[in-house]
Amino acid sequence: METENNPPPPFAPAAAPIAQSAAAVAIMTTTSTAGTTSARRRSVRSRQGRKRRRIAAEEVGGWASLPGDIVRLVAERVLIAGDVVDYITLRAACSDWRASTDSPLLGGHHYLRPRGWVALCDGDAVRPDDARQVAFFKPATGRRLGVRLRDLAGYRVVAISSGLLVLLHKRYNTVRVLHPFFNRAILLELPNMAPTLRVLGTNRYSLLRMNAAVLTTPTSATTSTIDAVVAWFPGPWFLFAKPGDAAWDAVTLDLEIQSVLAFRGRLYATTNTSTNILQVYPRTNKNTFAVDTPIPDALGEPSLCRYFLVESDGRMLLAVRHYVTITTPTAHLRAAFKVFEVDLDRRRLEPVGGIGDRALILGTDRCLSVSVRDLPSISGNSVYCFSRYGVECFSLEGGSADVLLFAALGSAGPFTIADHLVTYCNHVQWARGLMFDEDCYIPDDHLLKAKIRMQDKQLRITTITTSVPKKKKKKTSKPSPAT
What we know:
The protein is α+β, with helices and mostly antiparallel strands.
């Protein structure tokens, strides 16, 4: 009865095999499609792999296959004949060359010397520390290189010495020495100089015109080590610190400094009333300076002369700006230059009749000697000097100096190479992003003048005696477990 009343559904036994076969067909179709896609991918990978192997084989057979000792020999020649920038470029050519050469970061206070680079000014009134970028120029080759420097944040560039940047922190007054061509290559950190500045009674005006020199000792043909950093101001003070010092030491010179030069690990200076070249660092004792090389008084009253120290082809030169009397057509005074070679061993000056294909660029903050072979707009055997009337070029032909060129102040761009080099030698204008003559012609009610005042207020002598605090890493909070 139950079987008759409840018969099984028709075709029930046959339904399961039909469903199973449909699923099997679907699986077979999916498997076939996946297999075709996988085979295509394997084929593409195989072609790409063969292409990479072919390219690698071509590279191995090219310049990348040079033996490591040959690559190191070429790198040494590049460092000696070229520059540290050329060495960095060589290491960036391929991974094999980079693995075969030494890292340019030597560690500690040792570094590869940048040679012959000067910093350009764009004349756009943007400070390098605000732009965090400096444009470098090498007069010997004409190469221009823009370098982004992240370590300029919070600092001001107060000097460029021995190819390195000297930075002063705007708030904490700590000093940092930075290699411009390496990423985050801080060679030296020096302590806060504010306590010493407050003892000396230095004001912010003097701090805004701070200058500094990095004294180094060559350890090889291409490397040097930092011995000390010496800073000076418009007043009679010199501050110096060595690596590892906990504070800055100070010494007072009761004379007004005119020109300062770091030469062979020592610091020399001329004054407005002295008749000698003075050795500022290292000192012979606590409160005196070594006296070197008497300056002859045949050029006139020392207070009416201007003395410039400049290094040229490994020699120390003294350029003296003096005045000569011209009798025709009417009697008047004319500026002239006399150049001497400084012989520190025998403590005397040797007159120099000419300097060949070189030109001396003289400024208030630094002096420069460049070769004119690759700079056709610069006159050889000449002296370029910035005065209140503009840029004057004096020729040294025949042992005398004649005015060849006069560039009026307030001239509009584009600027010449001479304008850029003179601006580089006047650091106050360069650090403001202005050309040497633009700062003189800004009206007091101009917006740019107000901008300069606001930027100068960022630098102050701090009352904080600690160093720059290190940035703390942000801790990522872990999510709490779900309840």
